[in-house]
Design a protein that fits this description.
This protein is 42% helix and 28% strand. The protein is α/β, with parallel strands linked by helices and 137 residues long. The longest helix has 18 residues. InterPro entries: NT_sf (IPR043519), Polbeta (IPR041633), Type_VII_TA_antitoxin (IPR052548).
């Protein structure tokens, strides 16, 4: 998996990616969900998408989410992205599960890891209050 190096690499404008980052991070913060990273994968990450292609997004969380939290977060993010004209396929997966499944050919985590671009990740930098600061890529 590669880190996102710039919008030219994906042959697209930065607006959709910025919206995706902002919506997911904002909704996660409101739900108390800690995100490890957000991965763009599929045709948008490979650069062979069409105008009508959807956005395949993997949201890797630090911990497994309670069922109700998972669905509230998923529906809220999906609805907000759709409202902003960004059709998506979203997977939300705990980091520990992602690390195991990314080695299994055919599993969606495998493809997210293999061809994906990290578009947002949690920073290891600490702020003045001792909390980790999120980092936009």
């Amino acid at each position: 998996m590669k880190e996102f190096r710039g919008y030219r690499e994906l042959k697209m404008s930065k607006k959709p990616i910025s919206l995706i980052q902002n919506i997911i991070v904002d909704k996660a913060s409101k739900e108390g969900i800690i995100i490890d990273r957000i991965i763009l994968f599929g045709s948008r990450a490979r650069g062979n998408y069409r105008r009508e292609s959807d956005w395949d997004i993997a949201i890797i969380t630090n911990n497994k989410l309670e069922k109700s939290t998972f669905w509230d977060f998923y529906i809220t993010v999906k609805r907000e992205l759709t409202k902003n004209g960004i059709p998506t396929d979203i997977i939300i997966i705990p980091k520990s599960t992602f690390e195991k499944k990314k080695k299994i050919i055919g599993n969606v985590a495998y493809y997210a890891n293999k061809e994906g671009k990290i578009i947002w990740k949690k920073s290891s930098k600490k702020s003045e209050d001792g909390l980790e600061k999120p980092m936009m890529i």
